[in-house]
């Protein structure tokens, strides 16, 4: 016997009374079968009851697609009870992905033009919820007529539907422009809120609408001034603040209309000052209005005194006990630090205090703002605060903090010694969290400061004797001891306390590094090379060094084994050349990264076809490979020489002699990326001596008002190519068209195949983390033919 169908209330009680999910499914399956049978029988009187039960089942997550056509039938019914459930079902069961939603267009059109207020409201709600672009185009004129209906209920819903239509089809803006001026004079709260939202959408999507609505700025100013003085209505006031929701909405619209427009900005300056000074900050509603006022002041062309007032408001927010308000203040100040640096600097002590916040998000924002506040006048004090924070900050912030300190020290260092001391403190405190290029940068810095060689080697030796766990510190110390070990033993440095160091102590320390389980293979390579260099710096017997070198000739690490074998050959066969080969590195002139790259390119052009230098030993890129140097006529190993098709060879090209071939025509630059002021350009060079080599310089520039931080550019090419990425010149692209960040890509194309390049950019901009992946297929033909 067929069980009768349940009422909606009984169905809800039975589903809630199910003790297991299986019982619930059983109840729902039985009731869905009854609903299907009822739909097939075509019972018009109870169709809306069956659909109501189906909608409840749909809300529980069970399939209810078979009720879509029933929604259309109920919408077409003349009874209000049917229309109400039918429109509700359409909003829940239909969307743009189903073609069935287009079938209700005519029903909605009829209800909008001929229905009662309640039916018009149902139709407008449905259209604003699931109306597609086609429906919006068909029904725009009907909605426009309802905007001027005498009923506030219908006008409010018509305005919200117009907002949805503009978002779906921006070209409909011309239809809704004329009614907005009349709607702004409304006293009904809902209509006014909806009208301001509609004007915002129109202004953001249409330059013509933006120009049109700038004429109503005085009217908006008057509405907001009335809110401040007399209030709108007591029922919309919150904690003594008159209608904060309407105030915030008007301020957002003023921000859009006053952006890059002098006359509009001048009109609203006095009002913004009044809002900023008279709003109560003891309640959250007042803080919301104040924050929106600050954003408006900063986005328009406001007076200088008004901008200082806005920064001071954010400074007061930093003293608030609410963490959310402090976070908002830090984020906003970070955006303003480039345009209003001096005003933000006044709140530097408060920002530094926020570094000690236990909340991770607050301390991260405070760290970013503190780094942005560093300049040449406060670099010493700020570095002390940041280094203190580095010692106690959470592990997930140490990398960002260490990287920021190193970049700030490089940019604003008052002296070379201070710069070296700062980097050493960072390496000692958080050596494991520094960037990969920190070792190379410090070795270059020390190498270029001849007067500080003795000071640096003694500081590094003492630091290494205390702790060998920080691998970057150990690598720099090993390099420095190897280069300037003679200065360490002389004890001639007057800048620090006298330190007597014996040769055996130095050798024992390096052997300890080699034997430590904490040492990475790269670190052992640094220590082994340092021992080898000390063989020419020390006055004692080299037997101990030769024994250590021979031991590592059978090391499991291939790179370390290769170096040990080369050094052993140098001892046995070419001892007369050892002193010349292992002499001190020449002084490095501190120039821009681009200058260094060009110098390396001209000096090592004949080696570009060889494998890239091992990144674990940066000094290897500045020395000739020992086996290549030693294997002359006797030639234990044969290495293929790079092809040089040009007459005269690379020497002619380097010296620019008359025999050199004329330079090729320049390859045009290519812009491959642009977003929110960040732009990426590619420039190309093909060296005449190596036609299969392409040098691509990636240049990142930033014209926005906020720095692009943590900028990383990664590239990939097809397998038939060989790609080598050089280290970038930095990871921060300064705002307002500051010094660009450059990175060199070297691509070998032996088959001269068409080049395809995939780039991945990751960076932080305006307080948000961004990742972009795109492919460059439109490279000039000259790059590969």
From TrEMBL:
Pfam families documented for this protein: Adaptin_N, Alpha_adaptinC2
Chief localization: membrane
Record's keyword terms, sorted: Cytoplasmic vesicle, Golgi apparatus, Membrane, Protein transport, Transport
UniProt-annotated location(s): Cytoplasmic vesicle membrane; Endomembrane system; Golgi apparatus
Entry-linked InterPro entries: Adaptor_Complx_Large_Subunit, AP1_complex_gsu, ARM-like, ARM-type_fold, Clathrin/coatomer_adapt-like_N, Clathrin_a/b/g-adaptin_app_Ig, Clathrin_app_Ig-like_sf, GAE_dom
Family stated for the protein in its record: Belongs to the adaptor complexes large subunit family.
Protein name per the record: AP-1 complex subunit gamma
Gene name in the database record: LOC101401454
């Amino acid at each position: 016997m067929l069980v009768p169908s349940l009422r909606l209330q009984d169905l809800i009680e039975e589903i809630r009374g199910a003790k297991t999910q299986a019982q619930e499914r059983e109840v729902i399956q039985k009731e869905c079968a009854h609903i299907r049978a009822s739909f097939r029988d075509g019972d018009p009187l109870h169709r809306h009851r069956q659909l109501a039960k189906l909608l409840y089942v749909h809300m529980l997550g069970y399939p209810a697609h078979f009720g879509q056509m029933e929604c259309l039938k109920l919408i077409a019914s003349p009874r209000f009870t049917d229309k109400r459930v039918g429109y509700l079902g359409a909003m829940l069961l239909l969307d743009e992905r189903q073609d069935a939603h287009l079938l209700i267009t005519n029903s909605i059109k009829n209800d909008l033009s001929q229905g009662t207020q309640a039916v018009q409201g149902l139709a407008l709600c449905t259209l604003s919820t699931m109306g597609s672009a086609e429906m919006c185009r068909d029904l725009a004129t009907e909605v426009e007529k309802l905007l001027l209906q005498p009923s506030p209920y219908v006008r409010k819903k018509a305005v919200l539907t117009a907002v949805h239509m503009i978002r779906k089809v921006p070209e409909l803006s011309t239809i809704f422009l004329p009614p907005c001026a009349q709607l702004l004079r409304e006293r009904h709260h809902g209509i006014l809120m909806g009208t301001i939202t509609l004007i915002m959408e129109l202004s953001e999507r249409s330059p013509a609408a933006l120009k049109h609505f700038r004429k109503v700025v005085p009217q908006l100013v008057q509405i907001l001034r009335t809110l401040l003085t007399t209030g709108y209505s007591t029922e919309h006031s919150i904690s003594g603040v008159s209608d904060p929701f309407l105030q915030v909405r008007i301020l957002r619209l003023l921000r859009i209309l006053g952006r890059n427009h002098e006359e509009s900005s001048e009109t609203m300056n006095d009002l913004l000052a009044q809002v900023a000074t008279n709003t109560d900050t003891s309640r959250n509603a007042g803080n919301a209005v104040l924050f929106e006022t600050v954003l408006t002041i900063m986005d328009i062309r406001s007076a200088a005194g008004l901008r200082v007032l806005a920064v001071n408001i954010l400074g007061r927010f930093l003293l608030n006990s609410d963490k959310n308000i402090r976070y908002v203040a830090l984020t906003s100040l970070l955006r303003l630090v480039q345009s209003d640096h001096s005003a933000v600097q006044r709140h530097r002590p408060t920002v530094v205090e926020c570094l000690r916040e236990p909340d991770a998000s607050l301390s991260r924002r405070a760290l970013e703002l503190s780094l942005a506040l560093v300049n040449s006048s406060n670099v010493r004090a700020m570095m002390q605060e940041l280094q203190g924070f580095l010692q106690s900050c959470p592990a997930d912030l140490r990398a960002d903090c260490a990287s920021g300190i190193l970049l700030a020290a490089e940019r604003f260092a008052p002296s070379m010694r201070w710069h070296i001391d700062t980097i050493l403190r960072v390496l000692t405190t958080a050596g494991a969290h520094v960037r990969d290029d920190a070792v190379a940068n410090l070795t270059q810095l020390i190498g270029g400061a001849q007067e500080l060689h003795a000071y640096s080697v003694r500081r590094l030796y003492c630091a290494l004797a205390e702790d060998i766990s920080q691998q970057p510190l150990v690598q720099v110390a090993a390099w420095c001891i190897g280069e300037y070990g003679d200065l360490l033993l002389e004890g001639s440095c007057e800048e620090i306390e006298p330190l007597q160091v014996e040769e055996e102590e130095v050798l024992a320390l390096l052997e300890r590094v080699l034997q430590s389980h904490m040492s990475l293979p790269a670190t052992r390579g640094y220590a082994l090379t340092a021992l080898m260099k000390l063989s020419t710096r020390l006055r004692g017997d080299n037997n101990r060094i030769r024994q250590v070198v021979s031991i590592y000739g059978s090391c499991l690490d291939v790179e370390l084994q290769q170096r040990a074998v080369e050094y052993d050959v140098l001892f046995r066969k070419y001892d007369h050349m050892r002193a010349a080969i292992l002499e001190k590195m020449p002084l490095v002139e501190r120039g821009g990264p681009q200058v260094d790259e060009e110098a390396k390119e001209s000096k090592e052009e004949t080696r570009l076809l060889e494998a890239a230098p091992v990144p674990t030993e940066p000094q290897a890129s500045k020395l000739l490979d020992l086996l290549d140097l030693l294997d002359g006529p006797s030639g234990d190993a044969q290495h293929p020489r790079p092809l040089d098709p040009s007459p005269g060879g690379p020497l002619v090209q380097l010296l620019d002699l008359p025999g050199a071939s004329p330079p090729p025509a320049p390859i045009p630059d290519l812009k491959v990326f642009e977003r929110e002021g960040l732009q990426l350009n590619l420039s190309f060079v093909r060296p005449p001596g190596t036609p299969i080599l392409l040098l691509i310089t990636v240049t990142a520039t930033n014209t926005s008002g906020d720095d692009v931080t943590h900028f990383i550019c990664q590239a990939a090419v097809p397998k038939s190519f060989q790609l080598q990425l050089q280290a970038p010149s930095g990871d921060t692209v300064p705002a307002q068209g500051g010094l660009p960040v450059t990175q060199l890509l070297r691509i070998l194309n032996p088959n001269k195949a068409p080049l395809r390049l995939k780039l991945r950019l990751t960076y932080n901009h305006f307080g948000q983390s961004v990742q972009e992946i795109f492919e460059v297929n439109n490279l000039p033909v000259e790059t590969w033919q």
